[in-house]
Amino acid sequence: MTTPVVAGSATDQYVSAFDGLAGDAAPGWVQSARRAAFERFAALGFPTTKNEDWHFTSVSAIADQEFVLLSSRSGDVERGELAPFTFGATDWHTMVFVNGRFEPELSDLDQLPAGVRLRDLASAWNELPELAEKVGRLTSYENAAFTALNTAFMHDGAVLEIARETEVAKPIHLLYVVDANAAKGMMHPRNLIVVGRHAKATVIESYVSTTDAMYLTNAVTEVNVGEGATLRHYKMQREGLRAFHVGTIEATQAKDSHYVSFSLATGGSLVRTNVYTTLAGEGGGATLNGLYMLGGEQHCDHQTQIVHAQPNCFSRELYKGVLDGRSHGVFNGKVYVHPIAQKTDGKQTNNTLLLSDTAQIDTKPQLEIFADDVKCTHGATVGQIDQMALFYLKSRGIASALARRLLTYAFAADVLETIEIDEVREDLERMSLERFV
Amino acid sequence: MPLLEIKGLRANVGDKEILKGLDLTVDAGEVHAVMGPNGSGKSTLAQVLAGNPAYEVTGGSVTYQGSDLLEMEPEARAQAGVFLAFQYPVEIPGVSNAYFLRAAYNEIRKARGEEEVDPLEFADLMEEKLDFVSMDSSMLTRSVNTGFSGGEKKRNEILQMAVLQPTLGILDETDSGLDIDALRIVADGVNRLKRPDKATIVVTHYQRLLNYIVPDYVHVLAHGRILKSGGKDLALQLEEKGYDWVTDGTAGAAA
């Protein structure tokens, strides 16, 4: 094959990694999808801050690295090491990936109810081709270099289908763990979630590490929420402080469906999370919430996009951030309302608490409304610890450090209250109290 | 040794001097009322004693139980038994009243070298204390002062005082904005906390709270200083004659 030239400085490693992957057992359509995506990535190159979507986030630290593709199983994570990341739950359906590869030994998938199909990508494209072939259909990498890169290297991930009318009581947890063996490696997890008509499920997608090694996670999750279906989709990004993470979630929603997303980001050195959803049928609703808590030199960027393509849909968005040290948060919330999307009801809020004078937030609401009968509001605030509240707590004997932590917890409380899984909410409440000890 | 001894206290808010050499001595077992017109410096005195960093102390001394109170952080003052019932209690959305009270209670116990109490033990204690200020237990699950009515906020202050059992309680205009029933509840709360080893300073503009909390001493604060001190009868005279009688007709804002 002819190998295209990758823009940027780290050309050769991507070319040789790509050539190395060509020998795996992926079916023909995967091979050609990868090749097309690699060519697109080569043409696009890594985004620069001249790209409007990356204005506040430079990925040069990623572009300059020579990552090794982690194409075979490499981890030695033991079950006990998963405990900090499983929210104390013992009866969930948990699918564990270590350094990007599915680990059946660590997973608990025998209790999956009827109507639920959950496979790793590599077995799905052989055993469930009609489902696996949907991979790539719900996202576009035309202008998304990292999604193109993910597609070029896709070889593992979760393929999940909830059959119509199926209600899954327990959360399904996709747990991506990285250990020290992944140092200087890159992973491109690729997930597909298809929720059938009137089905209802909760999926937690976790990215965590047991190491502070430097590596790159570049994940893409495609979601299809069927007519009248509800998907609660929690993304928990809690990787080590030297990790790079780029993740895109792209959802398409049918008529009367509800997509509820929550994105937590506390880990990593350079993190970008995209949450995109398109309300493609009438009467749907999208709820996009998130919390980022950063310290030190961490950089975390959330870009959300809600496309109101049909009338009578609502969207609610609440993102909160707590920034300490010299950390840098970015929030860019896009809402597009198509000309036919009358009676759209949209509300977007981004509030940030700065705990230090050197922390920084760039917040950019972006509403583009082409219909004339809509109700859309947005608001952003940036504040510091309320000195009067701090004094009030101290005047009751509560030491300064605990008082600050309590006020940080209080700031995050309303967005955490939206989490409907008790174990997750309580774990994150505890985390919000302890993040800045 | 007096419980509290204030000598020549001077304090600023911004560039403006509010307290201009204030003297006050409080012994254990006593109730003192500090009265005065608006802008005389009453609330400044209360806030300075609690350690609000928005107020700058520029001179004088405050000795509490033999220690330099002004050198202590607000939390250390609270741990040593100083309690200010705020004129404007602060709303803290997101922190439940129960969590807040237990955190405060445990911090103070910890400072005294006592065991912390768990939520269950604390719930038992709260049951008794809630009764004391005629508050419903639903107040505990609500966020601190958030959405509370004026009366509820003041009662919440007295509830905290009842839980934390201070040695020196300072009530800053706790009576303002209260109806008679709430006033009785607040006053009753304070009276039941009266003990020979404790003292209370009641800061108020009006005499009416003193119908329910009977002070041992009444002081008139104006122009940043105590201009006159007396027994409880002084409060009645002030009610009758107004503050001009003491302040020489220049009662208004401390200029």
**Helical stretch count of chain A?**
9
Largest interface by Cβ-Cβ < 8 Å = A-B, 24 and 30 residues
CATH class of chain B: Alpha Beta
Low-pLDDT residue intervals, each spanning 5 or more residues of chain A:
1-10
Write the CATH homologous superfamily of chain B.
P-loop containing nucleotide triphosphate hydrolases
Helix content of chain B: 25-40%
| SSE topology string of chain B | EEEHEEHEEHHHEHEHEEEHH
Query: Quick one: how many beta strands of chain B?
Result: 12
* Helical coverage of chain A, percent range: 10-25%
> What Rg of chain B do the Cα atoms give?
18 Å
Q: What is the strand tally of chain A?
A: 21
| Secondary structural class of chain B | alpha/beta
Strand content of chain B: 25-35%
* Number of structural units classed as domains of chain B: 1
Kindly name the structural category of chain A. alpha/beta
Largest sheet of chain B: 6 strands, mixed
State the separation between the terminal residues of chain B, measured CA to CA: 34 Å
Report on the architecture of this protein.
Chain A is an alpha/beta fold. Chain A folds into two domains: 11-281, no CATH class; 386-437, no CATH class. Helix content of chain A is 20%, strand content 37%. Chain A has helices at residues 11-21, 28-44, 60-63, 121-127, 129-132, 145-152, 387-394, 400-416, 422-434; strands at residues 68-69, 93-98, 101-102, 116-120, 158-162, 172-178, 185-187, 190-195, 200-209, 216-225, 230-238, 244-253, 258-265, 270-279, 285-294, 299-308, 314-323, 328-337, 345-354, 360-369, 375-384. In chain A, the strands form two sheets. In chain A, strands 1, 4, 5, 7, 8, 10, 12, 14, 16, 18 and 20 form an eleven-stranded mixed beta sheet that branches. Chain A has a ten-stranded mixed beta sheet with strand order 3-2-6-9-11-13-15-17-19-21, covered by helices on one side. In chain A, helix 2 (28-44) packs antiparallel against helix 6 and helix 7 crosses helix 8 (400-416). The termini of chain A are far apart. The model of chain A is unreliable at 1-10 (pLDDT under 50). Chain B has 255 residues and is of the alpha/beta class. Chain B has one domain: 3-Layer(aba) Sandwich (Rossmann fold). Chain B has nine helices and twelve strands. Chain B has helices spanning 42-50, 74-79, 97-111, 119-132, 138-141, 150-164, 180-192, 232-241, 244-247; strands at residues 4-13, 16-26, 31-35, 56-64, 67-68, 82-85, 92-96, 143-144, 168-172, 199-204, 217-222, 225-230. In chain B, strand 9, helix 7 and strand 10 form a beta-alpha-beta unit. In chain B, helix 6 packs parallel to helix 7. Mean pLDDT of chain B is 90; it is low at 251-255. At the A-B interface, helix 7 and helix 8 of A face helix 2, strand 7 and helix 3 of B.
